[in-house]
Amino acid sequence: MEVEKVFHMKKGVDHTSYVKNSLLQRTVITRAGPIIDERIREVYITLRPECLMMADMGCSSGPNAFQVVSRIINATDEASRSINRQCPQFGVFLNDLPGNDFNAMFKLLPNLNQDLQEAKGSSCGPCFVSGIPKSFYGRVFPDKFLHFVHSSYSVHWLSQVPRGLMSENGEALNKGNIFIAKTSPPEIHKAYYAQFKRDFTLFLRSRSREMISAGGMVIVLNGSMKSDEPDSILELLGSTLQDMVLEGVIVQEKLDKFNMPVYTPTVEEVRKLVETEGSFALNKLETFTVDWSLDTSQNLETQAKFVAKSIRAVVEPLLETTFTHAVIHDLFLLFEIRVKERIARKRGENLNIVLSMTKKE
Ligand SMILES: C[S@@+](CC[C@H](N)C(=O)[O-])C[C@H]1O[C@@H](n2cnc3c(N)ncnc32)[C@H](O)[C@@H]1O
Questions:
Q1: Model-level pTM?
Q2: Of 21, 161, 246, 260, which shows the fewest CB atoms inside 10 Å?
Q3: Which backbone phi and psi does 99 adopt, to 5 degrees?
């Protein structure tokens, strides 16, 4: 699977699209919001740029990126008022892989400048927004270009499915699973962690070249308490595919060879990688959880539907590399039932890790 060519969230604006099914990610951004405000305030007061250059890495096509941008503009405006300076102009770079639906995103683009004028008068902005289609695992911007970088729910996606998930004679090692699961042998976790370590270090190294000293970065990642046994929703998706193998709908070998390019690190793993890479001072490293369904007061059917639609909007393009549309359709009908059974028995939660960092000298 050529991840950087095939990976994107479900395109368009229909009821299955990421645009319509990204409330979970939006909630995570809101929960991390005070940490974003705090970092941008410190960056602005320290650097006082005339034009604040910011990037959202892995912005996708939903409205979430604009929530982040508005938040950063508001926090900067407040910071500038607090020191009696005029609010700066803003250069906003929305980055994602080339397969991302940038058109859907730009069509949703609110008239930021008009909104800014109405809310704050002519003294704030203007704001210049552009899309940057390129993998964030590598250089995206010139040297010392950015004052602030934000990335939410993106950096746990790997640049490739790890090597090492097959034996030397081509036999699949993670049989019956699509991610690290309770039945995965230990070498599966080792291979996934090795890939995450390479990718995350490259992400930090690339941003460290692109950022101005004392610039700020806030990253939110989907993490886990135990990265070698993450209790992920993807384990449940894998076991649903295995049920379809037993029903004779899917060939076992196809499932055995399919693995997701994602890794959910622990807090200690990310701390160690940031410290080892060495370009950033870690100001904050916090965690919070959100329920898979967000709203546990709803009935179980509604919750299971929400979970299945949210996951489908993210992983369908990856599944399409191996499974037919008919299989994927049936998979998500069955998955909804499996989610309902699972949350009736035991709630599922996403652990979120927030890193707030400052670029060192
Ligand atoms: C779950 S979405 C999160 C999007 C958005 N930040 C939000 O919170 O709604 C993950 C995004 O990361 C992007 N992504 C994954 N790997 C990437 C890479 N190597 N370079 C740039 N974007 C990447 C995906 O294409 C996808 O749009």
A1: 0.94
A2: 246
A3: -75, -5
Please give the single-letter amino acid code of residue 343: I
Give the model confidence (pLDDT) of 38-49 as tens digits.
Answer: 999 999 999 999
CA of 89 to the centre of ligand 1 (A): 26
Q: Is the pLDDT at 18 greater than 90, yes or no? A: no
Q: What is the model's pLDDT at position 107? A: 78
* Position 222 pLDDT exceeds 90: yes
Q: Rounded distance, CA 180 to CA 191, Å?
A: 10
Question: 344 C-alpha to center of ligand 1: Å?
Answer: 31
User: What is residue 331's predicted lDDT score, i.e. its pLDDT?
Assistant: 97
Domain boundaries, the chain: 3-359
Instruction: Indicate which atom in ligand 1 lies nearest the CA of residue 135.
Output: 20
With tokens 């060519």, the residue in question is: 5
Confidence band for 240, pLDDT divided at 50, 70 and 90: very high
By the 8 A CB rule, do 28 and 154 touch? no
Which of 221, 215, 177 is CA-nearest to residue 199? 221
- Ligand 1 and 152: CB distance under 6 A: yes
Element (H, E) at 306: helix 300-319
27, 30, 66, 96: residue to mutate for ligand 1 pocket, most atoms within 8 A of CB = 96
Distance 234 CA to ligand 1 centre (A): 17
> Measured in angstroms, how far is the CA atom of residue 171 from the centroid of ligand 1?
31
Whole-number pLDDT of residue 95? 97
Cα separation, 68 vs 63, in Å, equals 9
Q: How confident is the model at residue 110 (pLDDT cuts 50, 70, 90)?
A: low
Q: Which two three-digit tokens encode residue 185?
A: 């042998």
